[in-house]
Amino acid sequence: MLQNSQAAQEFIQAYKSGSLQPRGSPFSNLDFNPLKEAINLFEVFYSAVDYSTFYAAACFARDQINEGQFVYAFYTAVVHRPDTKYLALPSISEVYPQLFVKASAIKKAQDAAAQGKIVF
Asked: What is the pLDDT of residues 18-55, one digit of tens each?
């Protein structure tokens, strides 16, 4: 159950109407509408009354919401919620390695893994 939050209600309405930024599209916190959606998603996470509700909302959002918006809102909520105070998150470079490593290096690693030369 979510606490009564106007931003959370706006997010739920936008999701139901299908007007959210689609999955796979680039997310930038410099673009007003996607940022507003991410902030509203943060409110959904932050206004969850307990950890199990927060977890359920995060699991749903992970599969349904734009990836960049999810990471932005989830990381921010984990930092601010008291019940996730000691939760350790991976660095952004582990979540989005393509932003920190050349594409050719990622391709070589994928090819080596596919051939069984390295195991993750």
From this structure: 888 899 898 888 989 999 999 999 999 999 999 999 99
Number of H helices, E strands in the chain: 6, 0
Please report, for the chain, the start and end positions of each structural domain, with discontinuous segments joined by +. Answer: 6-86, 90-120
pLDDT per position as a tens digit, 6-20: 877 888 888 899 888
Identify which of 15, 94, 17, 7 has the alpha carbon closest to the alpha carbon of residue 42: 7
Question: Which pLDDT score, from 0 to 100, does residue 80 have?
Answer: 95
pTM here is: 0.78
As assigned by CATH, the class of the 6-86 domain is: mainly alpha
CA dihedral 23, 29, 33, 39 (to 10 degrees): 90
8 Å CB contact between 42 and 79: no
Helix then strand then coil, in percent of the chain rounded to 5, is 65, 0, 35
Integer distance in angstroms from the first to the last C-alpha of the chain?
38
